[in-house]
Amino acid sequence: MIIGTSIEHEAFSDHEEDIEHSDYWVHYWEKQNHAEDQFIGRYFNLDSMSESDHEEQVEEWLESLTEATGRECTEYIVSEVSDEVPRQFVTKSGLSSDFFEMMEIVEKRYPQITVEICLAGLECGLQLHQIEEEYKGEFDSDSEFAQDYAEGLGLARGDVQWPYQHIDWVAAAEELTDEFVSHEGHYFRNV
Q1: Is the model's pTM score more than 0.85?
Q2: What are the backbone dihedrals phi and psi of residue 56, each rounded to the nearest 5 degrees, phi first?
Q3: Distances (CA, A) of 27 to 17, 79, 82
Q4: Which residues of 80-106 are buried (b: 16+ CB within 10 A; e: fewer)?
Q5: 8 confidence band (pLDDT: 50, 70, 90)
Q6: Are 104 and 118 spatial neighbours (Cβ–Cβ below 8 Å)?
Q7: Are 145 and 170 in contact (CB under 8 A)?
């Protein structure tokens, strides 16, 4: 899309139709023409997009703008992103590599690993590459996590009432606070 000129050229198409059914997208303004009050922007679909493929699309767009305008077009700024793109991965000049790394992890491991799980892991101080291995599940409470953890280790059986109904799972969960971290119900081994 170009605002402020009547030039017709494919390079000026905003490609809004490309994001019609997309969960993840970004819109950029090209900077050179933007500085001269000609707003040339484009939407990019990010669904199943690797970082290198996205960079290649942006580079092709900038090259076509350079050809169409006769001005060197090499820089762009983010104007908006879809609601699903976590803001911590957005800078004025684009998307961080971590966004694409996270999306690759989610694409390979969905539904076991989701964007929500990745963001919870990051909040807990884990690196993206640690999240899959350290993720222990989603639980409604620390005590529910502690009981599940004990059952997973074979230390308790959920199908047996006595003596397990008398265990103080809240206290048991407190014993695990150094070993595990959680955010919004998602639990991870603390590394």
Answers
A1: no
A2: -65, -40
A3: 12, 6, 9
A4: ebbeebbeebbeeebbeebbbbbbebb
A5: very low
A6: no
A7: no
For range 80-92, the mean pLDDT: 94
Q: Where are the domains of the chain?
A: 1-95
Q: Of 5, 151, 17, give the one whose Cα is nearest residue 70.
A: 5
Decide if 184 contacts 120 (C-beta within 8 A). Answer: yes
Prior bond of 163 cis (ω within 30°):
yes
Higher pLDDT among residues 53 and 31, named by residue:
53
Tokens linked to 156: 């308790």
Structure tokens at 25: 């997208």
CA distance 191 to 182: 12
Is 31:75 a contact under the CB 8 Å cutoff?
Answer: yes
* Phi, psi values for residue 24, rounded to 5°: -120, 120
